[in-house]
């Protein structure tokens, strides 16, 4: 898990197309495979649809 401060890293934010805060990008093998935008409780993140089965324990 990495936290990025957009004001300090605008280039990185643009590279990952971060337009809203908060944004959670799930990365697999160097590729973003899922993006979750907006604040959600832990329980909602744990119930996200399949496609990222290795992401657990958020």
From TrEMBL:
Pfam families: Thioredoxin (PF00085). Residues 1-47 form the Thioredoxin domain. It comes from the Bacteria. Gene3D superfamilies: Glutaredoxin (3.40.30.10). This is Thioredoxin domain-containing protein. It comes from Streptomyces mirabilis.
């Amino acid at each position: 898990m990495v936290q990025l401060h957009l004001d300090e890293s605008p280039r990185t934010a643009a590279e990952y197309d971060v337009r809203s805060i908060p944004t959670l990008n799930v990365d697999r093998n160097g590729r973003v495979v899922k993006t979750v935008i907006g604040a959600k409780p832990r329980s909602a993140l744990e119930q996200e649809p399949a496609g990222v089965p290795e992401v657990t324990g958020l």
